[in-house]
Specification:
Strand content: under 5%
Low-confidence stretches: 3-32
Oligomer: single chain
Number of domains: 1
Distance between the termini: 30 Å
Radius of gyration: 18 Å
Mean pLDDT: 80
Order of helices and strands: HHHHHH
Structural class: mainly alpha
Helix content: over 70%
Shape: globular
Number of strands: 0
Length: about 160
Amino acid sequence: MRASLTALFVATATVLACASSPTTPSQAPPAAGLGAVEAQQWLNEEREETRAALEAWEAGKYPDDESGKKIAALIKRSDAQTGARMREYCQLLTWILLKAEDTLHDQVDDTEKLHVEGRQAFIRLDKLRSELGRANVATLKALLPFSRNDYWEISELEERLGR
């Protein structure tokens, strides 16, 4: 669903931007632009969803959505060590996504801290991927509610951190 909404908003914003582009400088649209407010509102809502999911993970719970229920069931079927790694993987990936969203939307105040914490998070994520193995990581990736756009935001953050 989130991927569909992302694609819809990107396509809508592109169409609206093209349709409203001026033919002469005197016809320039207002600074906010047609659809820009709606797109910003949607991006803020998406970031709040990610923040809520992270808060659930940090509280030792699961996100209150379908993916959280499925991940809880998967972890319950796993041995204790694998289950703990799966929880940590999901929590860490959610934290990275939130930082990526904040960074891409100019919401980060302490960029130096982000560089240190972000690099450490990616190093730990790589280790967890190795410890969990391809099958578990693929299963978690399928269950997490992250869109291709979310993974793109994560890769942009990783590139920005010089990894």
